Write the structure tokens for this entry.
Amino acid sequence: MSNRDALLELIENDRLSPLFQPIFDNASQTILGFEALIRGPEGHSLEFPDQLFKLAQEQELLSELELACRNAAIQRFVQLETDAKLFLNVNPNVLKDESHPTGSTLRLSELHGLTPERIIIELSERYPIDDTDLLSEAIAHYRALGLRVAIDDLGAGYSGLKLWSELQPDFVKIDRYFIKELQHDATKKEFVQSIINLARNLNAKVIAEGIETQAELQQLNELGIHLYQGFYLCRPVQSPPLHPDSQLIERIASSHRPNGDTIAQLVKDAPSIPSTTKAHVALDLFTGDKQLTAIPVVDNGKPVGMLRREAIMELFSGSYGRALYANKDVVRVMDKNPMIVDWQTPIDLVSNKVTDDFDVDIYKQFIVTQNSRYQGIASIRDLLRRITEVKVQNARYANPLTLLPGNVPIHRTISQYLEDNKAFEVAYFDLNNFKPYNDVYGYSKGDRVISWVGELLREVFAESHHFVGHIGGDDFVTISPVAATNRNKYLDVVARFEAKVKEFYSTADQARQYILANDRTGERAQFPLLGIAIGIVQPDYYRCNSYHDVSDLAAEAKKRAKQQQKSACFFSHRRFPQLILDD
């Protein structure tokens, strides 16, 4: 059988199978949608999409293959019985193929019972596009049918931003190249940040795809992206999870370094009504309370919508409004897709979701849940006010070089552990031979070393339960709940420090393993290469009266670690300050 016949056989006999990869929305802890990825039969020469589409292009069967893929994806997606969106990959060149039947996606969606509003057409920038005018017309046609558009692999080709500005996509998916090891590359960070800023101005949502490590996810969190896709979260499968399970939520939560504030701090009690409530009853509630702007609609403890003042008032504003709608259920006029957020969601994540909405109304409320059950409401205005307060506070106390929390947040964190009577561990990090390094190489390179150490600690202590602070200069601290795994993290810091620190020296200094600099008396002396000393203590929260006691313990442990004159950890057995008796 020829290659052409093999491809036709797969198309004509419906032997193409879709896999689905979830796109996770961290702000609402839901699955936004699923990207459909086509596969041929397992073990077949055309099992993988690269082979399929390359052959289809060569044999001028691209249109036939595209339609078969869409049909298989939509049919299987409907069987999943999910309310999420379907992301369909489309080669943009097929849209200008005269033989390609127009309206085929709409017909397929109608055939299988999938509303067009739930379909997002993904146009990959990996395919060269030489006629953007014709492509724009095709996109306008899609939009007129109710479909939405995403640019896939942004940055992979040559037309990215031009294509973006011309097509005005609803979603932008950043190419995997810019996500891979993003945390180590300042240029990639700058590119991603630029995309985020442009997206907000153009009212598009940004999806980071190809996430494969926790460090990448953590960096995306810090940049303000909350829509994720990648192997680290879930691989493409035939029957994907329809809702994020506890392990997935925990995996994402562990990559987020929260400021400690959650939506629980903003939630307010608010009466709710069931969806069977009659419209005239809701009208009476609004007219009886001029301050009431929204009423959550809750059935069996779970929110199903939000009834807003403007909607009910408009309903009754017409001459026949009361006669027509007074005895109708509020389900007919409520907002069926209100913003719903779990009460433990960090406020900065919710802020990212809110600011993604170009037309956000700061006076609107959103629903807060606990374990998916109605808890209360919070206002966008209060959320943005709190975010502003937190940012001002963080900027005030952050170290300007590393942007890590400074002394005030460090003291506050220790004090909180002591007040809560929780077992915790403090590690004090200091660099050996840093002054002579600064004298020889200059403050600029010294700052580079300090910045690198800060980033190293961020990576190793990435989970949200660890606090990483910068005391000042080359002194850092971590504060963590007591755990057996902490010891491995300290040893990992030492190993990674030793593996990379030589890169901050000249070739000659690397070879001789020391530098020449003036000692404290002004005499020339040999100084070993930089090392990192780590002093670790587990304070007794009953016998330490304040963060001053804990600081003294940590400082003493750090001095013991520095006595070794090389990278080392010292685990102190002292848990409370020594008593000083007056003779």
